[in-house]
Amino acid sequence: MRTDAVLDALARREPVAGGDPAVRLLGALVADVDSQRLSSVSITPST
Amino acid sequence: MRNVTEGCVADAAVGVRLATRSDESDLRELTSLAVQGDRHAIESLLGHLRPMVVRYCRARLGRVSGHYHIADDVAQEVCIAVLSALPRYRDMGRPFASFVFGIASHKVADALRSSVRSAVPTQDLPDGPDEGPGPEETVVRYIEAQHARDLLSRLPHTQRELLILRVVSGLSAEETGNVLGMSPGAVRVAQHRALARLRQLAELESIA
After folding, report:
1. N or C: which end of chain A has fewer CB atoms below 10 A?
2. Which residues make beta-bridge pairs with B8?
């Protein structure tokens, strides 16, 4: 699988087959980053 | 006041997308309206960008005391800085994302330079049962993610930024190139080298 296709699949949060340790680590990072709730925030000023 | 985004980053999976030409055109139009002060456009623009910025900041800064509060605060600062700079933004032909991630990169660097770590607020108590992964899975995931951050930190700056922007924030090769000042072709060559280097580091660690 070409690097571009692998990175695109990871970016789309799709499973990537194979035993590439670099891909597994990036997958773990993505899962961790996506796991925790975003805090509720206000950015736009009130009217 | 209206909330721009609320909920789990994973729920916002639609925010993880690779830009198509149509997306870029829509985003450019949205940016143009936002620069003119259109409130709905500003909200849409930030709603579109914030999940990507949060992921970027979380990937770069990691957890403190098991939480992403610091990273999320920095992401919030990025969004506020983008909002403040919006009236002065001029479309010079580069995607708006490159402007946003330029700010994000500086904010993250500032946060990394700062040795001050303020008190970490506790999360609100959940209203119902926690349906997330159990403690064992959470710990394994945390350790693997931290390992990924450690190895990424050993890559050259451009390679690290490239992988985080492409994979974690979900930018296309074209968008990533605009953020890093590289052509899409150069991004594709560099990402291949970055992944190979990360693989080499991971294999060396597993042998040691």
Report:
1. C
2. A37
- Here the ipTM equals 0.83
CA B90 to each of CA B40, B93, B194: distance values in angstroms, whole numbers, following the listed order: 19, 9, 32
Supply the DSSP string of B130-179, one letter for each residue: --S--HHHHHHHHHHHHHHHHHHTTS-HHHHHHHIIIIIS---HHHHHHH
Helix (H) / strand (E) element for B37: namely none
Distances (CA, A) of B176 to A17, B93, B128: 25, 15, 40
B18 neighbourhood in chain A, CB within 8 Å: 8, 11-12
Confidence of residue A22 (pLDDT cuts 50, 70, 90): very high
Nearest to A10 by CA among B3, B23, B2, B59: B59
Global pTM reads: 0.77
Query: Sign of the C-alpha dihedral, residues A14, B25, B192, B142?
Result: negative
